[in-house]
Design a protein that fits this description.
With 376 residues, this protein is α+β, with helices and mostly antiparallel strands. It is built from 9 helices and 15 strands. The chain has helices at 5-16, 27-39, 104-125, 144-150, 202-214, 263-274, 296-309, 324-330, 356-374; strands at 43-50, 53-60, 69-74, 94-95, 98-100, 131-136, 161-164, 175-176, 178-187, 230-238, 248-257, 279-286, 289-290, 336-338, 353-355. It has a 6-stranded mixed beta sheet. Strands 10-11-9-12 form a 4-stranded antiparallel beta sheet, with helices on one face. A 3-stranded antiparallel beta sheet has the order 4-5-15. A hairpin with a 2-residue loop joins strand 4 (94-95) and strand 5 (98-100). Helix 3 (104-125) packs parallel to helix 9 (356-374). It binds zinc ion (ZN). Zinc ion is lined by residues 74, 106-107, 139, 166.
């Protein structure tokens, strides 16, 4: 597909920047994108939430009473994992219509697609509401870059609708749950393992807490779109060696919430439920998002994607959370669609790939969505 070569090349270039988070080091990747966008007529600003942890905001247009359309994506990627890869994770190898590498699906292909769409339309945007591209660092560790931008005041500007280019195989998904990740800590007194009566075992306390967590009842009605909240104990660490009474244990808890749940209230419920032996610390705290499928713009996106996908798209929500948790509230709650070229099941996997034809399809979808928005 010669017409999409530039797009695939850009995706491969982005994959070649090693932005594994931690440590992230997104700055060189952000500056590469910023340079392309500046050359294309965008006004670009960079914002670091920590050293080399660079997000960027690029805008163009604005000659209208309508707010611009926002496209967003992150440029950090998750670690490679323990299993060996059968391809070089940063080379962007292409075989059988698949582009392989860490971040191909999640989500450098999506970022490349909206950047190329934006550059294609740059001239038109000058005469309409235009677009704002929010490209973030640190998404994979709890939307750090997006929350940083949201906290900076004027940096994000305005947006009338948001496209989150996370992997959906180009299906327009309408929202996702929130996430509350907690670290539960128990403490005790260490002693020789042969004299446990001299100590106070933190692991026993953690084990009791884990049993309680398995039985925890959210006691909340099922949300008709998002379903039920969930709780999973994902990690347990306790003790230093086999022949000592452990004085510290930590349990990692991953809670996915529906829209009616207040995270602060939920956390204090859990604190009461687990009792005074357990101390809770929030590690990630992000809200859910959901747009009414009957929303006028959502209907327009649905119509565009019906045409492009050659059939009616799925009406569903994403299993993961996204930067929309930070950006949608920061923009005052505009309609938000999650729509990107990656394959959701390939995210974070060994031998991650994205289908090459989906990247061009996403670019075409973004061009159509942005053109119609710009004609408002
Ligand atoms: Zn992602």
């Amino acid at each position: 597909m010669p017409e999409s070569l530039g797009l695939v090349e850009l995706t491969r270039t982005l994959v070649a920047f090693e932005t594994i988070n931690p440590p992230g080091n997104e700055r060189p990747c952000a500056e590469h994108l910023g340079g392309l966008l500046e050359d294309g007529g965008f006004f670009v600003s960079y914002h670091d939430f920590a050293d080399t942890r660079t997000s960027l905001v690029a805008r163009i247009g604005g000659a209208s009473d309508t707010k611009p359309l926002c496209f967003t994506g992150h440029i950090d990627v998750v670690p490679l994992g323990a299993a060996p890869w059968s391809v070089d994770p940063f080379a962007g190898e292409i075989a059988d219509g698949k582009l392989y590498g860490r971040g191909t699906t999640d989500m450098k292909s999506g970022v490349a697609a909206f950047v190329v769409a934006g550059l294609n339309l740059a001239k038109d945007f000058a005469k309409g509401p235009g677009v704002v591209l929010v490209i973030t660092a640190g998404e994979e560790t709890g939307c750090e870059g997006a929350y940083h931008l949201a906290g900076l005041g004027d940096v994000l500007g305005e947006a009338g609708a948001i496209v989150v280019a996370e992997p959906t195989s180009n299906q327009p998904w309408i929202g996702h749950k929130g996430a509350l990740w907690l670290k539960a800590r128990t403490t005790g007194v260490t002693a020789h393992g042969s004299m446990p009566e001299q100590g106070d075992n933190a692991v026993y306390k953690a084990a009791r807490a884990i049993g309680q967590l398995e039985d925890f009842d959210f006691n909340i009605a099922r949300h008709q779109v998002l379903g039920k909240p969930t709780l999973n104990v994902g990690s347990v660490h306790g003790g230093l060696n086999i022949n000592s009474v452990p004085d510290l244990a930590e349990v990692g808890i991953d809670i996915r919430t529906i829209l009616d749940q207040d995270h602060a209230i939920l956390r204090s419920q859990l604190t009461g439920y687990l009792g005074e032996d357990v101390e809770l610390e929030s590690v990630v705290d992000v809200g859910g998002v959901l747009t009414d499928p009957a929303d006028e713009w959502m209907q327009e996106v649905h119509e565009i994607m019906t045409e492009i996908l050659d059939g009616p798209p799925e009406s569903r929500t994403a299993p993961y959370f996204t930067d929309a948790s930070a950006l949608t509230p920061a923009y005052g709650g505009p309609p938000t669609v999650i729509l990107g070229p990656g394959e959701a099941v390939m995210a974070h996997q060994t031998d991650e790939y994205c289908l090459v034809n989906k990247i061009g399809e996403a670019r075409d979808a973004y061009i159509e969505i942005a053109s119609r928005w710009n004609a408002r």
